[in-house]
Amino acid sequence: MIKKQKVRRSVQHPHIRKDDKVVVISGENSGKTGRVLSVNPEKGTAVVEGLNMIKKHIRPNKNVGKGGIVDKEGPIALSNLCLLVDDKRTHAKMVENKAKESPNKPNRVRVDAKTGENL
What we know:
Blueprint: E1 21-24, E2 33-40, E3 45-48, E4 53-58, E5 68-73, E6 75-77, E7 81-83, E8 95-99, E9 108-112
């Protein structure tokens, strides 16, 4: 029997990047915070440090050695994550890119649209 995979709509420009601090706004881990380890825009998911822990069964082999059950982070949908602006748990509503004024080349900086702070 072939198992159908759940297909998520791809996100062209995800609002979350690697090493951002995020808070989970819905689901099993709602209210918990963590650092983003990786983002997969094609699937619309991100892996957050210490959240959505799953158990992976590993078979013994030469590289791993002894097999067993390992806890690791599972992916979370990007729609369930929200950026943290500071440690006060205030959510960023929107993120936009602003060009810094420099004569040689414009640098793009992510800015919180509500407060105007750099992220």
